[in-house]
Amino acid sequence: MGRSKDSASFSTRTVQWLVYALFRCIEGVLWLLPLIVVWCVGRVLGTLAYYIGGKYRRLALHNLHIAFGREKSPAQLRHLAREHFKSLFANILCGFKLPLMTEAAICRHVRSVGTQRAQAAFDDGKRPVVNLVLHASCWEILTQVPSMYVRGHKAGAIYQPLRNPWLNALVLRRREKLGYTLFDRQAGFNAPMKFIREGGQVGVLVDQHAGDHGLWCPFFDRLASTTTIAALMAIRTDAVVLPMMVYNDGPARWRLLCAPEVKADPSRPGAEGLTLAINAAVEGLIRKQPEAWFWVHNRWKTPKPHFLLSNYRRGIAFPPDYDLKRLQPFELLIRSPNWLGDACMAFPMVRAIKRGRPDLKITILGPDKLEELWLSMPEVSRYIAKPAKEGLFAVARRIKATGVKFDAAVFCTNSTRSTLEVWLAGIPRRVGTRGSFRAKLLNQIIKPPKVKIDKEHHAHRYLRIAKGIGADIEQPGLWDSGTPPASTTDGTIRIAVCAGAEYGPAKRWPLERFATVINQISAQHPQFRWQLVGAPKEKEMGEKLSAMLPTAPHENLVGKTRLSELITTLRGCQLLLTNDTGTMHLAAALGIPTVSIFGSTCPIETGPLGDRHTVIQHKIECSPCFDRECRFGHYNCMQLVTPEEVTKAVLAHFSKPSP
After folding, report:
1. pLDDT tens digit string along 311-335?
2. Which end of the chain has the lower number of beta carbons within 10 A, N or C?
3. Domains defined for the chain, CATH in brackets
4. Are strands 240-248 and 222-226 parallel, antiparallel or unpaired?
5. Cβ–Cβ < 8 Å for 575, 655
């Protein structure tokens, strides 16, 4: 084992040395060439890279679309991307050439603007300076010409060590030769802070994705994780914050700009306010010459695993008076369950996810029969209806036809087919629970509970998915719409009755017993009005039940309502009397109390949740069996439920205070 490790280490060092040797050979060639020739060669290489570097071309176009998609046409964005690749490669090659030149020779290719601001800071009681550094144009210039912008201060730099020790040592020697005091970023920030307090001038990179430790704030009107290091260092050392930007200024020529001091808005003091001001200043500098900035960096990276932002330590911040309507949305696709009841049990998950970040826009993909259901939720912005027999590629085309660039997708389904549909649509982040083959199509898998749960409610399964992407699933108001049951002015009480169950007869309480309950209550309480509801296939069942209610005031709506009309009907009722059905879950999701009769199924897994719901079940040896039809033919579990106990449960809802 020891020899194996030594061998691997030797192999790594060998590769690193060969890379170092190759780099020095390239430098040798560049040393022989005039700077203008190096610049021209870089432009040619950049043009080639644009056409053959598909991954980076797509990333650059994606980032440019975020930044300028509202202002520029697709053709203009492609032109800007090509110019960026030319600028990037020309400046990278020139950056390799510059350390081989003298500072005086470099200065002949650079003109400076605004560097008197650093001098003014020094003259003002030798105030230290924090320079905001951007990856723009030939940013290597900032390391090669300190005499152009350092005015009296001691020059320092924070650096990220290179993995290649030979290249890292080479860079350090060259920086120190120019008079910089260097601070390893991995060693912390105490040393550079002390250096700044003693009158130093230090540059800090501020334009990269800051990961889980950043402050989420708008950058080109899209939330991005932004470093707070520069702001914290400046506040704690009372330093002047001066942005530094390098612009292209002609063939092999550059303009070094020291921009005006950045200050926090008086209404937002502290590191958060200063970071917001820094972010705005950086965006303004980039807009002046967008092709010069580093667009092949994933600035708007989707964090993993928590792309919902409510639990991040630094949180989200907006500049004063920022119009949230300007904020570009984070587009999330949620694959709905296929059944009405299961879809309703996913409502708490969707509510929790929606509250996870202010820029979130939710699209639901699911069966066409559920479109009206999902669009009744204020949290849902759009619905992609999927016909029952549509093929994989047709569904993928349907997703793409929306014209929306989805950032992520979440699956409530467990099937490989539904995952394939979204994978074919090219959505980059796909989140779901582990399946068989589908696990290979997911790039974020929600792990099962550490302690195995024998019976887990479907709603809690869906909420685990929401928690896995960063949602707060303990917040109030997730379990119903918050709308209290409707009340009437004439004293009548409306109760909906769903006596069917599409799943099969094993879930159906006998019609005669439903009729007994309705007739008994109506005889004693004439203010009750009954609404019979059900699916289109249950129309005959509705007519039979209606015929059993000769004196009970009722309306037979079974098979006669669209889903949206059923929602309206339920919202007009004070209670639903039902079997274990999708209508039961719909009522629960709408905040309507229910009395539910269970037999072959398990209320622990699929029952309505909350204090306003009553479940009646008599368990026997074979229940829950989840059969569509009773294997013994006599439905004992349903026969044990009596009309008297159901009548008592219904009336009990109107004898206790409303929750």
Report:
1. 888 899 999 989 999 999 999 999 9
2. N
3. 15-100 (no CATH), 109-292 (3.40.1130.10), 329-468 (3.40.50.2000), 493-652 (3.40.50.2000)
4. unpaired
5. no
